[in-house]
Amino acid sequence: MTTATTVPSHDTDWLIVGGGIVGAAIAWGLARAGQRAMLLDEGDDAFRAARGNFGLVWVQGKGLGHPAYARWTLEAAAAWPAFAAELADRTGVDVELVRVGGMTMCLDDDELAARAGALASIRDAVGIDYPFEVLDPGALRERVPQAGRDLAGAVFCPLDGHVSPLRLLRALLQAFVDAGGVLHTGTRIDRIEARGGGFVAHAAARAYGAGRIVLAAGLGNRSLAPMVGLRAPVVPNRGQVLISERVQPFLRYPTLHVRQTGDGGVQIGDSKEDVGFDDGTTIDQLARITARALRCFPLLAGVNIVRSWGALRVMSPDGLPIYEASTRCPGAFVASCHSGITLAAQHAGALVAWMRGGAAPAALAAFGSERFDVQAA
Fold first, then answer.
1. Amino acid 8: pLDDT
2. What is the pLDDT of residues 313-329, one digit of tens each?
3. Which of 354, 359, 349, 353 is nearest to 172 (CA)?
4. Structural domain containing residue 119
5. What pLDDT is recorded for position 151?
6. 25 and 128: one domain?
7. What is the band of 124 on the pLDDT scale with cuts at 50, 70, 90?
8. Quick check: is 64 in a domain?
9. Roughly what angle, to the nearest 10 degrees, separates helices 21-32 and 165-178?
10. Judgement on whether residues 285 and 186 belong to the same structural domain of the protein
């Protein structure tokens, strides 16, 4: 076995392992705070949730049965306008944030009632403002004239929105580097050591050292976290997506299953499949999500599909984020979630402030891995 050359632990203050949206947001937050930071990105061979997701900044439905997660999401969505404006000011990159509210289109009365009931339950639990409206078919078509006429209605939340995931990733990485951060791409970390009051992360050709380390490697956190006394029992969940040719703007509001992007293409998706690390596509799932999209927006029947892909969500056993500081190896942190777009402003702000030694956000106590030790009755 070849021994990689070790970078001295004082070479940088922070190592961030994982260059997706979660890692890039944390890295940018650290660099913005004046910390010396190095971001280690595996590269295009990684399972990139950051480049395969739906781009939603989504509040409605998040945190059913988990008020702390609902509050964390509300805080993240509220921080997004200033977050996007700062990135644009620093980098010139418009991440295409549109925050005019979002719709969940419902095919039948049972689906509409279930959705409305879930949001009412969250509103009652969080104890803070959680606005939403239940739209009947007539009210829905007043706002979205192109909506299908056999829909039961929709649930609208004014706090929802969407962005361009690729523009966001570009802006975060550019802002990080412009602030003095060091980015290494094509770097897959397969071993981490706690050594001399710091950490050494080993790749195939060399090693990287720092006083503190953040694991934001998505599905890779499952194997990396135990090396520094942490846990991230995350598993993959596949989502498949279709993209249409560019069409005239017709959809002002993002929806949970269909959204029109800034360049005019229509994104169709929201499949959920437990298929391990298979990020391919299947005809049956693509047909199913297409059928739903056509019921929601019949005008799509004449639109050409130009590409499709599958991507893997990073899912914990209960679907909530995992944020934790290591007690065995002080200075090591883990951050895993499947809502990296929605939570990006929180990751760059409140989460980084906590990692740097500030007060823990109120919601953070709900997101430690010790919750997985609780046995079901």
1. 46
2. 999 999 999 999 999 99
3. 349
4. 102-158
5. 97
6. no
7. very high
8. no
9. 30
10. no
68 band by pLDDT with thresholds 50, 70 and 90: very high
Shared domain for 271 and 151, answered yes or no, is no
Residue 131 is assigned to a structural domain of this protein: yes
Cβ proximity of 175 and 87 under 8 Å:
yes
Most confident of 5-19, 176-190, 265-279: 176-190
- Reduce the DSSP state of residue 153 to 3 states and report it: strand
Buried b / exposed e along 331-348 (16+ C-beta atoms within 10 A) = bbbbbbbbbbbbbbbbbb
Residue 303 has pLDDT above 60, yes or no: yes
Token pair recorded at residue 191:
């071993």
Return the SS3 of 61: coil
Model confidence at 377, pLDDT cuts 50, 70, 90, reads very low
- Residue 260: closest CA among 281, 244, 272, 241: 244
What's the pLDDT score for residue 54? 85
Same domain assignment for residues 139 and 248: no
Residue 59 to residue 346: CA distance in whole angstroms:
14
**Residues 206, 194: Cα–Cα separation, whole Å:** 16
Q: What is the pLDDT of residue 127?
A: 81
Instruction: Please tell me the total number of residues recorded for the chain in this structure.
Output: 377
Q: 3-class DSSP state for residue 256? A: coil
Which ranges in the chain belong to alpha helices (H)?
21-32, 67-91, 109-126, 137-143, 165-178, 221-224, 283-296, 344-346, 352-355
Give the residue from 76, 48, 26 showing the smallest Cα distance to 218. 48
Q: Which pLDDT does position 47 carry in this prediction?
A: 56
User: Quick check: 185 and 24 in contact, CB under 8 A?
Assistant: no
pTM (2 d.p.): 0.94
Whole-angstrom distance, CA of residue 209 vs CA of residue 226: 18
Last residue of a domain, one of 158, 178, 203: 158
Counting residues of the chain whose pLDDT is more than 90, the rounded percentage is 85
Report the alpha-carbon distance of residue 181 to residue 106 in Å, rounded: 45
Give residue 10's pLDDT: 56
- Of 34, 28, 35, nearest to 12 by C-alpha is 35
- CA-based nearest residue to 14, from 198, 187, 194, 193: 198
3-state secondary structure of 302: helix
Neighbours of 25 (CB within 10 A): 30
Residue 239, CA distances (Å) to 208, 242, 307, 314, 371 in order: 33, 10, 14, 11, 26
